[in-house]
Amino acid sequence: MRALLFDVFGTCVDWRTSMMREAERFGLPPQLAVAWRDEYQPQLETVRSGQRPWVNLDVLHEIGLNRVLRAMDLTLPKADRVELVRGWHRLDPWPDVVAGLTRLKETFIIAPCSNGHIAQSVNLAKFAKLPWDAILGAEIAHAYKPDPRVYRESVYALGLEPDEVCMVAAHRDDLRAAAAVGLQTAFVERFGEDPGPPFDADFVAHDFEELLR
Amino acid sequence: MRALLFDVFGTCVDWRTSMMREAERFGLPPQLAVAWRDEYQPQLETVRSGQRPWVNLDVLHEIGLNRVLRAMDLTLPKADRVELVRGWHRLDPWPDVVAGLTRLKETFIIAPCSNGHIAQSVNLAKFAKLPWDAILGAEIAHAYKPDPRVYRESVYALGLEPDEVCMVAAHRDDLRAAAAVGLQTAFVERFGEDPGPPFDADFVAHDFEELLR
Hints:
The structure is a homodimer. By secondary structure, chain A is of the alpha/beta class. Chain A has 2 domains: about 5-15 and about 90-210, Rossmann fold, CATH 3.40.50; about 15-90, DNA polymerase, domain 1, CATH 1.10.150.240. Helices cover about 45% and strands about 10% of the residues of chain A. The interface of A and B includes residues 134 and 160 of A.
């Protein structure tokens, strides 16, 4: 195994607590964060289905936010909406992540394989001190997970074969899609993630420290 | 200024000394390194001119190596040629680079904007301990510098405007092309680099420590 690819939202960072804080910063109810995240898969699906050309996650997050604000009968000025969308660029890492990634980086190439775009991934890495070797994922493939192109393009960009790479995620549907194109898989349990059906990952861990072992 | 983009070959790493060492490792005369580098621009030009579709630098390096070996009346088994091409993934940094980049990273997003592809850039960063925030450059644009698309796509990937980004290079033609699309520019003098005509960069430094100041 030469490289580890990581899901980010939920797996590396606690989007729920962070975005509840962001909502409150703009005088909005914290439960907006969860309602907003519920718009995530439907908005990605507009791209996966071909209904919309590939646009980055800031665009899809803003569309989702507008829908949630309307549904909750709330309003927010455009400048604040833009700034709130940028909240997804400043999410707190789970407590084990920075130390775990730093250690894993000594042995493996580590990179996000996220549905976040390059700018979001870089800004988040600066904020949360995630020591990535490269930024891979949706933007280089112009597709959204679990579209197999996202995993394939990420592996190809590293000049590796799929079985030399392990996908790490807190969502089994992400791992199932990665396994289908030949990657190894590691499931990490995270609070409130993974509503999906069971999947036998090659590795299972409670956090990145255990993953290391 | 929010981000610094770096040329790599010659600016961050001493390809000359490193590739002379690689040539000797395969029983070849060290001057092969310089003759091989002389094939660099002509091979890039086959892509820039549209004569060849975009292929990565390993492919162009192997074509150049085969030409140089023939011209010097030398032979090398295929497996050794592949391994020698991989020599461009393990080049020594100039002495000021790792400390300089580490300090610059505290304030700016730092990324290569090189003609090297993602796999080469990642492997080189692992070897030379270059602490990049992201890997940008030729592969994300499917073009080769000084094609303006390489600078534009790298700036766009960061979600920034061109004047928020500074291109750092030891070659004035690289800086001239970056300036033409609106980037700020910093010239760093390196031994044996920059045979090009003069260009007034926004910043001039002898090394990355001076650049920091």
